Amino acid sequence: MDKEAFAISCFNNEFIGDDGAVVGNFVYAKDLFVEGTHFLKHWLSLEQIGYKSMTVNISDIIVMNALPKYALLGLGIPKNTSSDDIKSISNGINIACKEYGVKIIGGDTIASDKIFISLTLIGELKNKPIFRKNLQTNDFLAFTGSLGDSLKGLRALLNKGSISKKSRFVKPMLKDKFFYKASKFINSSMDISDGLGLDLEKLCLASRKGVKFIKKLNTLQIKSGEEYEILFSFSAKNLKKIRQISKQTRTKITIFAKATKGRYKSNARKHHF
Amino acid sequence: MDKEAFAISCFNNEFIGDDGAVVGNFVYAKDLFVEGTHFLKHWLSLEQIGYKSMTVNISDIIVMNALPKYALLGLGIPKNTSSDDIKSISNGINIACKEYGVKIIGGDTIASDKIFISLTLIGELKNKPIFRKNLQTNDFLAFTGSLGDSLKGLRALLNKGSISKKSRFVKPMLKDKFFYKASKFINSSMDISDGLGLDLEKLCLASRKGVKFIKKLNTLQIKSGEEYEILFSFSAKNLKKIRQISKQTRTKITIFAKATKGRYKSNARKHHF
């Protein structure tokens, strides 16, 4: 049983099933970031943990085409956490807040065995929201940036190696500038958190579409999760505009497939419990 | 060091410091409800855990004078949790949602050693928000319902006894009907989660006021936390109206003090870590 899918099914309604939930002019997203599940304590500094927890949530707001504005923070920390440690976590959170113009407006702090950060982000729509369910037949499918570095970093850590603080596993690099500018030409989007293969499957499922690859991707590109690059689609007629904006904003994009009628199932393994 | 207060101080701004954060016409509140901190697993059924986690968050929205509308749910559950168990937790949450007209619009589910529920509630303001910081000198201070039952229940559980499923520790009874109706006559309010003594101290601190007791309360009434009754204040000129609404809505209220200039410090012990 996929417990996450089952839990979602217990609350099914029209709001659920995208990176964020749209209510009027606002978009809401919530993610948990937990020691032992998303990171081990010696993998990341407390500041990096704070920073990453914020950016992965901000990522959800961006790909819905909303501006991140406010956040509520649920913080679980062990009883022996020092004030310096709390300061480090909050520094990381505040750095991300400053970078993306977010204000922490509330939250809760409790003692827990393991560090956990539960963030709810509130975004404001600039324009129309962009959903997963709007992938159109014959749309080009593309992703921003490069994929693979996050899984490479994770594998190094799992092999007791170390990684650069610039690794995408440590520091997601959100492609907001490209995305906001390109948004009026984009039909569907989501961020790449579980890996391109699995996320593409979700996008296709939401839109009831299939995929024809036009570019060969390697296993690392397909399987690497926690990339926080953007998977998006656009109509062929906007190809030139998309390429222009990619150039203007110096954001690499890779067009790798076309959407077809039908279905798509990735053979990448699910990480969910 | 009070770690919660320290964590809050790391993010200080004008939104923080009340039961909920007001942004435009919306009120946001976030609470964590965690096994080992707020409950032991054998104290409450999974359905009761789900129900209580929702109602304590809804309580925060009500005392700000907003209508609870939407919620985002972060759910941490052990790997061996069965689908029946997930169903039980979600049943409890859904019962509370139905009772108060709330829709779950998103969230996240992960594996964790202990059950934790992180809820963000979104409320819509009917009228003016009611803050802690608006307690006026000479206001009457009152609370809804009866205080003490929750601590009595907790003590029974700590002594390996059992409690009725009607105990306030198990099932908070929110006083929304009275509060919404009385709200235009109310100056300041908050819910009683840490105990009347400590919560009164917070109310007074937010408003820079003191307290003169006009009614003797017992230790149980002063110390019992997780009551989710409402502590509120109103001007003497509205006393008759408040009594009327209390009668109309069959909601017991106890007027126990008057606000004064000065400060108030409770000698109740803090539970925070």
TrEMBL record, chains A, B:
It comes from the Bacteria. Mg(2+) 4 binds at D19, D60. Mg(2+) 1 binds at D31, D108. Mg(2+) 5 binds at D194. Mg(2+) 2 binds at D31, D60. Substrate binds at H38, E226. Pathway: Cofactor biosynthesis; thiamine diphosphate biosynthesis; thiamine diphosphate from thiamine phosphate: step 1/1. It catalyses: thiamine phosphate + ATP = thiamine diphosphate + ADP. GO terms for biological process: thiamine biosynthetic process; thiamine diphosphate biosynthetic process. Mg(2+) 3 binds at D19, D60, D191. Its EC number is 2.7.4.16. GO terms for molecular function: ATP binding; magnesium ion binding; thiamine-phosphate kinase activity. Keywords: ATP-binding, Kinase, Magnesium, Metal-binding, Nucleotide-binding, Thiamine biosynthesis, Transferase. ATP binds at G107, D108, R132, S193. Pfam families: AIRS. Reaction mechanism of ThiL seems to utilize a direct, inline transfer of the gamma-phosphate of ATP to TMP rather than a phosphorylated enzyme intermediate. HAMAP family: TMP_kinase. Catalyzes the ATP-dependent phosphorylation of thiamine-monophosphate (TMP) to form thiamine-pyrophosphate (TPP), the active form of vitamin B1. NCBIfam families: PRK05731.2-3 (NF004354). Belongs to the thiamine-monophosphate kinase family. This is Thiamine-monophosphate kinase. The lineage of its organism: Bacteria, Pseudomonadati, Campylobacterota, Epsilonproteobacteria, Campylobacterales.
